[in-house]
Amino acid sequence: MHISEGILSAPVLTGGAIFAVAATAAGLRKLSPEKIPQAGLLSAAFFVASLVHVPIGPVSVHMVLNGIVGLLLGWAAVPVIAVALLLQAVLFQFGGITSLGVNTIIMAAPAVLCHYIFKPFLSKNHTIVMAAAFACGAAAVFLSALIAAAALVLTGEAFREVSAALVGAHFFVMIIEGIITMFCVAFLKKVQPSMLNLG
Amino acid sequence: MKSMIWSVFLIFSLLFLLALGPHPAAAHGTGHRILNPESAIAVEFVYSDNEPIRYAEVLVFSPENDEIEYQNGRTDMNGRFVFYPNAPGQWRIQANDGTGHLVKAVVDIEKGNHGDTRLDGIADDHSEAHGHDHSHDRLPRLWAIILGISLIANMFLAFYLSKARKK
């Protein structure tokens, strides 16, 4: 889901970079000192998750984890994801430096959106919490695929084909991410409910 | 008799004119030749986990023309693509899997020789060139992961300290 160097047009790259810088600044402002260790941990998890590749049919996809990061951190997910993406670009050539802004928006915007959509359900009964956690993990990947498709479309690709390819390739990732998010939320609710900020 | 001669003359004239004119609907014969594989350039495109980039769109640019591709096509199910360069110089081959992953390869073709293949702008998740030894100029994967986690820890610690000091 990381877009490489040399694919997107200059206006898309510039627009993505501007939005990413603004969102990162907003996220850093919202990141309280108490949340920083948690943010660091989630950033490391996000960084490593992208290295786990799952071969599905003719394509190879990787874990994303932006759903759980967004659910736990809200706006603070943006700098967390940006840092992980920067290091992935530098150390593994995943994505790229010029496409860092766009890639940050692709991963972080759904994370923030899912936080506001699914967080209110975490204080409901167990079944609803589990369903919301699953939907959060799956929806974050789905929305990321759509934004990535939109970025490619703005550079001249055909939306229907690109989005179908991206969503199709990530369908199983959506399910896996949904299950991972569900287990994480169930675990945190049991051992460390304060991390979910249900108060 | 005279009219028969005229008829034959007309038919031959018509056939002659048809033979001279354009043949938009004429069928071509077909055939094939097995070419010498030694003069072909075969490139394999892989993701960083060595998974082949299957059925990716490939564009090949010759040294003379950087804009219009010399050849286009797709990688096979093993991520491989083969083409026959027709001139010496630097050839560019790029594979795009349509989901944001682009790999560029450069091949130096010497006169009467195929030269050396190297990956140029390797991108996204997908960096290592199978069979090429660009991996030696990168950190081993495990060390890169450890370095990345360490850098994240240090960045967030520095941020924590700066926020704590402001308080």
Explained architecture:
The complex is a heterodimer of chains A (199) and B (167). Chain A is mainly alpha-helical and 199 residues long. Chain A has one domain (10-196): Orthogonal Bundle (Arp2/3 complex 21 kDa subunit ARPC3). In chain A, 70% of the residues lie in helices and 4% in strands. Chain A has helices at 10-30, 36-49, 66-73, 77-92, 100-118, 126-154, 159-169, 171-191, and strands at residues 53-56, 59-62. In chain A, helix 1 packs across helix 4 and helix 3 packs across helix 5 (100-118). The model of chain A has no long low-confidence stretch (mean pLDDT 89). By secondary structure, chain B is an alpha+beta fold. Chain B has one domain: Immunoglobulin-like (Sandwich), CATH 2.60.40.10. Chain B has helices at residues 2-20, 141-166, and strands at residues 41-44, 57-61, 71-74, 80-83, 89-96, 102-109, 117-119. Chain B has a 5-stranded antiparallel beta sheet with strand order 3-2-5-6-7, with no helix packed on it. The radius of gyration of chain B is 29 Å and the shape is rod-shaped. Residues 115-136 of chain B have low confidence and may be disordered. The interface between A and B is large, with 46 and 41 residues.
Structural class by sheet pairing and helices of chain A: mainly alpha
Overall number of domains of chain A = 1
Numbering strands along the chain, what is their spatial order in the largest sheet of chain A? 1-2
User: How many domains make up the coordinates of chain B?
Assistant: 1
- Biggest interface: A-B, 46 and 41 residues
Helix/sheet category of chain B: alpha+beta
Strand order, largest beta sheet of chain B: 3-2-5-6-7
CATH topology of chain B: Immunoglobulin-like
CATH superfamily of chain B, by name, is Immunoglobulins
Count of alpha/pi helices of chain A: 8
- Average pLDDT of chain A: 89
Q: Percent of residues of chain A in helical segments? A: 55-70%
